[in-house]
Amino acid sequence: MKFGIICAMPEEIKELTAVLEQPQVKQLGGKKYFEGKINAQDVVLVESGIGKVEAGITTEHLIVEFKADVIINSGSAGGIGSGLHVGDVVVSSATAYHDVDATAFDYQYGQLPGQPAQFLASTKWADAIVKAGETTGLNIFKGLIVTGDQFVASEQAIKQILTHFPNALSSEMEGAAVGQVANDHKVPYVVVRAMSDTGDGEAGVSFDEFIIEAGKRSAQMLIALLNSSVK
Q: CA-CA distance, 76 to 214, in Å (whole number)?
């Protein structure tokens, strides 16, 4: 079993590279892929960069070049669901694009032509992450994560997203792209996000203050998974 783990930013990946054993580095498409072991589990880590295109490219590389059996996208996100606070963790049940509109051609809002409206995450791995994460003491939620090339920093932007996705818990900039590529290859995937902000008018300030802590918390979830006996 090989885990391919994608983080968008250095603050999000450094907690994982710090515990990676026997690391070997391969450069591909301008990205560094760190292949090694965490608790005897085979892992490939990559800092994708921000946005859907970067996330899609690195997912493709992890599946095709590194033969990853499961893809996990880890990092920070904005909480847009009711009851979420900075530091809480959301594990995806599914992901969707909040910035895609092909409704003129009778597709659902957020649905790309030729693609499903939402990309279902692996129930097996989402449940395993939630169970393993219970050992961390973090507040964990499971639900829909929405993705767009937009930092959601206002209540107006949140309301617009929730108009189309009333059950969405968090918004970020990579997850659905990971889900789309994984779905194309029929490889299971999950997105794990710790809340760095709640998308209000102070989101930019909150993000800067809590991004490091959010990265630590999402990494804690994955380390807990890799330390468990799940296979």
A: 6
How confident is the model over 114-144, as pLDDT tens digits? 999 999 999 999 999 999 999 999 999 999 9
Cα–Cα distance for residue pair 89/94, rounded to 1 Å = 15
Instruction: Establish whether 208 is a catalytic residue.
Output: no
Q: Is 184 a catalytic residue?
A: no
- Residues 148-182: tens digit of each pLDDT: 999 887 889 999 999 999 999 999 999 999 999 99
Q: List the domains of the chain with CATH numbers.
A: 2-227 (3.40.50.1580)
Q: What is the pLDDT of residue 184?
A: 98
Catalytic residue among 11, 12, 47, 88: 12
Which position among 35, 47, 172, 197 bears the catalytic label? 197
Helices (H), the chain: 10-17, 52-64, 123-133, 155-164, 175-185, 203-227
